[in-house]
Each structure stands twice: as C-alpha cells, then as structure tokens.
C-alpha cells in the first residue's frame, strides 16, 4: 500500500515507523527540513519538504498513485485541507485527518465531512481517545491499562504482579483451573524491560507487568483474585483544564457521588472550562504550587490526573501530589525517555498520547478484517481483534491446529455476541472474532491470516 503522511512529529514518525516496517511504501511531508532529514535517515521512507495541503507538494510526494493520505500535522485546518485537496484533485481513496478542536467534532456538524462537502473518511480526535483511556482506568481501579475489544464485551487489563499475588510462579495454563468460571488469559508479560507473548508453561513473577484478556463482566473479580482490586476514586483532582481535562471532568461530574476539582494556570482556559462544567470547581492557579494543590484538596484526593501540555509539569505536579498525600496519580507524558522513569518518580499510571492516536489510525489502515488495534510498549507488540473470513486459513480449524507461530497469544474468541476463553479444541467459524497479542516480529503473518485466501498456505 502507498501511504502519504502529512506531519513528521511524534505521531507522524510513529506511523511512518510502523507502516514502513510492514513493507508499505511511505512518504512523509513536513515543512521542517530537520524533521524530514531525521525521519528519512532513521526510517525506510521518502521525505518531502513542504505544506501537505499544497497540490504541488502532494504531487512530489506521489499522490497520483497513493492509496491513503494520513494528515497528522499540528494544525487541524492543514489536515482537513490536505484531505480535501487529495480527494478533489487526485481522487485518493482513503483520507484520514487528526482533528483536535472540539468545535469541529460537534455532532451537529457531521454533514461537514460528507463526500459532497469535505470528504474525510476517518477523523481521529486525540483528546477524545486520551480522555476515554483515562476514564477506563478510573473505572477499573487496580489496572494500569484498560482497553476494550468486542464492542466492550472483552477487556485487556494491564496489571502489576505484586508479592501477595496468589498465582505467582504458577504456569499460565493452570490459572483457569484455580478459579472456576473466571476468564483470565495472560497474553503478554513485560519483564525486565522486555515484552513477550508467554507460552502456556511460563509462570508470572513478582514485578511483572501482565496483560490479561478477560470478559468485561469478569474484570472486577480478576483484579480481586490478583490482589490488585482498589476502591473506585470519588474525589478526583485534574491538573490542566484544556480539552482533555475538561472532557474528563465533564464525564466524571455526571456520576453520582463524584467530587471533581480542576487546577488551570491560564485564566482564559480556566474560564472556558468553567463555561462547560456545571458541578466542577475550577481553581485558576499554578499546579506546581503546593498551596494551590492543598487548596484543591489534593491531600485527600483518591486520584490526581495531570493533563497539561507540558511533560515536566505533569511529572512534577504528580510527584508533588503524592508528597502532599494523594493516593494515586496519572500523568500524560509524551516523551518516551520520561515515560521510562515512571517507577523512579512514583507515578502510578502514565498515558502515552501518541500510542492512543497511532492505535486509532492503525485500526483503519490494516487491510482485511482487523477490527481493533492497540499498540503496547512503543510498538513492541499489538493487541488485535480480527474477524475470521470464510476464505481465511483459520476457518473450520480447531484453535490448537492453527499455525500462528511464535510470539502470539490468544486471549478470547467472540461468537454471536458470546465470549469464550481460548480452548485449543474450539472450532473457528467465519464471523468469529479473535482477540490476540502479537509481537512485532509475528505481525505480518497474523495480519495476513485475516485477509488472504487459504491457498496462501
């Protein structure tokens, strides 16, 4: 597939890296010569310097033979115009735009993106994706990551394995026998900085970060069994009243018994947040100040969520909050090197905005019947939900007879709305959905299995 990416920032770089590794032909456009030079030196992609919305620049990027354009610059208007030009002048089949401003996303303006007006096929809103990720974690206390699959019927939980976990040193294959009726498929383990898909004989060890697929209805019991169950936060302080902070506060204040406060340094931003929020207290002040945090009630807060545009503010304000007495903290951190310092800083959870955006876009880039994608550990593995086609080499075979290779772990099967654990004797049928973790090296094979006919094998 030939793909043009407009924007060589963090998201554009991440997409270019992933798509080029999968042997797509990728061209990246950016106005910064330095960013274009860096991305072409480090990745197997072409680079073009210029504005992604200019027709002549798109021509130099090879738009005439392009299958997809993905516009992820920092400017919504450039992204939207790039898609418009790609459609109107060059008839590019698929147009993807990152749109951050919530005014563009109001449901009353949905007709704006129709084929007759501004034909953008897929709109990605980082703020909404990040907000949803934060809310899932708040709703599932005890897990450091929560990702839904199967229209919400299945969840992947990220859980840290502590010393009091009752299944430490237990082979993974034995876990279902220990807890009758509990769906708990360990599909990934991060150990000593390495993420891998475990075999059934691998045990969990203290300090592991385990990725476990379960039925959504079993999540609370699973966390309780693992010793990770916590009470749900009712007193939340949000640091940063921008688009993400306001989105999260708006959703939380609608819940009964929830107490939410927002700290925002910029006066105009604080006023805009106050206009949208009805039951949330807004404090205009510097979250780096211990006095402001105390005034907001951080010392008694069960969760402090740091969502400013600055990694350093999010990190330091979280550290300050824990010092004052906050039970748990979540920080939005862009810089990968800073994310690696999580344990040293004492931050309980980290949100990687790039991972959320890239996963959303990859969901639409994959050919065949890949319905959902979530990238883990900077692309070291992906959790995928794929649908079995009648031409797939999996169709009609028992799960244990499907040659998926190493680096793959199956978490769940969804059939006619019901969720089943990955039993080796289960016969896969067309229309079944399979949720599985795939290491980067095994990705090509798995994606292919969801899109080609059986004569591939």
CATH class identity of the largest domain: Alpha Beta
Note the total helix count. Answer: 15
Strand order of the largest sheet: 3-2-1-4-5-6
Give the % helix: 25-40%
Annotated CATH architecture of the largest domain:
3-Layer(aba) Sandwich
| Rg from alpha-carbon coordinates | 23 Å
Class per helix and strand makeup: alpha/beta
CATH superfamily of the largest domain: NAD(P)-binding Rossmann-like Domain
* Overall geometry: globular
Distance between the termini: 22 Å
Q: What are the segments in which pLDDT stays under 50 over at least 5 consecutive residues? A: 453-457
Question: Which percent band covers the strand fraction?
Answer: 15-25%
Tally of discrete structural domains? 4
- As for the CATH topology of the largest domain, it is Rossmann fold
Count of beta strands: 22
Mean pLDDT: 90
For the biggest sheet, the summary is:
6 strands, parallel
Written description of the protein model:
The chain is an alpha/beta fold and 457 residues long. The protein folds into four domains: 123 residues, Rossmann fold; 86 residues, Regulator of K+ conductance, C-terminal domain (Alpha-Beta Plaits); 93 residues, Rossmann fold, CATH 3.40.50.720; 101 residues, Regulator of K+ conductance, C-terminal domain (Alpha-Beta Plaits, 2-Layer Sandwich). It is 30% helix and 25% strand. The protein contains 15 helices and 22 strands. The strands form four sheets. Strands 3-2-1-4-5-6 form a six-stranded parallel sheet, sandwiched between helices. Helix 5 packs across helix 8. The chain is globular. The two termini are 22 Å apart. 45% of the residues are buried. The C terminus is likely disordered.
């Amino acid at each position: 597939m030939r793909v043009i990416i407009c924007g060589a920032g963090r998201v554009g770089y991440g997409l270019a890296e992933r798509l080029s590794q999968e042997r797509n032909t990728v061209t990246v456009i950016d106005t910064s010569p330095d960013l274009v030079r860096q991305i072409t030196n480090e990745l197997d992609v072409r680079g073009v310097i210029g504005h992604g919305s200019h027709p002549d620049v798109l021509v130099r990027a090879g738009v005439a033979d392009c299958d997809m354009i993905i516009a992820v610059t920092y400017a919504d208007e450039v992204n939207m115009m790039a898609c418009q030009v790609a459609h109107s002048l060059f008839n590019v089949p698929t147009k993807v735009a990152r749109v951050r401003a919530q005014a563009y996303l109001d449901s009353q303006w949905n007709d704006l993106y129709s084929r007759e007006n501004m034909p953008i096929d897929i709109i990605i809103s980082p703020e909404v994706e990040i907000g949803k990720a934060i809310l899932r974690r708040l709703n599932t206390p005890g897990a450091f990551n929560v990702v839904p699959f199967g229209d919400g019927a299945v969840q992947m939980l990220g859980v840290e394995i502590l010393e009091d976990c009752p299944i430490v040193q237990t082979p993974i294959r034995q876990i279902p026998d220990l807890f009758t009726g509990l769906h708990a498929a360990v599909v990934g383990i991060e150990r000593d900085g390495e993420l891998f898909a475990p075999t059934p004989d691998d045990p969990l060890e203290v300090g592991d970060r385990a990725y476990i697929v379960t039925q959504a209805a079993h999540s609370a019991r699973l966390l309780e069994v693992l010793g990770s169950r916590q009470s749900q936060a009712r007193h939340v302080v949000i640091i940063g009243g921008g688009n993400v902070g306001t989105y999260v506060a708006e959703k939380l204040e609608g819940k009964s018994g929830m107490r939410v406060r927002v700290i925002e340094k910029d006066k105009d931003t604080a006023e805009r947040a106050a206009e949208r929020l009805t039951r949330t207290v807004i404090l205009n002040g510097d979250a780096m100040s211990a006095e402001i945090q105390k005034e907001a009630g951080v010392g008694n807060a069960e969760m402090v969520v740091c969502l400013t545009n600055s990694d350093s503010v999010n990190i330091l304000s979280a550290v300050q909050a824990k010092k004052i007495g906050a039970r748990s903290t979540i920080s939005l951190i862009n810089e990968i090197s800073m994310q690696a310092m999580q344990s040293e800083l004492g931050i309980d959870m980290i949100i990687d905005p790039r991972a959320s955006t890239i996963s959303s876009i990859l969901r639409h880039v994959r050919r065949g019947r890949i319905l959902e994608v979530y990238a883990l550990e900077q692309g070291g593995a992906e959790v995928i939900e794929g649908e079995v086609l009648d031409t797939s080499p999996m169709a009609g075979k028992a799960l244990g007879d499907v040659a998926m290779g190493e680096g793959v772990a199956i978490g769940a099967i969804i059939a006619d709305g019901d969720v089943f654990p990955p039993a080796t004797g289960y016969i896969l049928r067309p229309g079944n959905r399979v949720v599985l973790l795939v290491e980067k090296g095994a990705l090509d094979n798995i994606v292919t299995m969801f899109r080609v006919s059986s004569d591939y094998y």
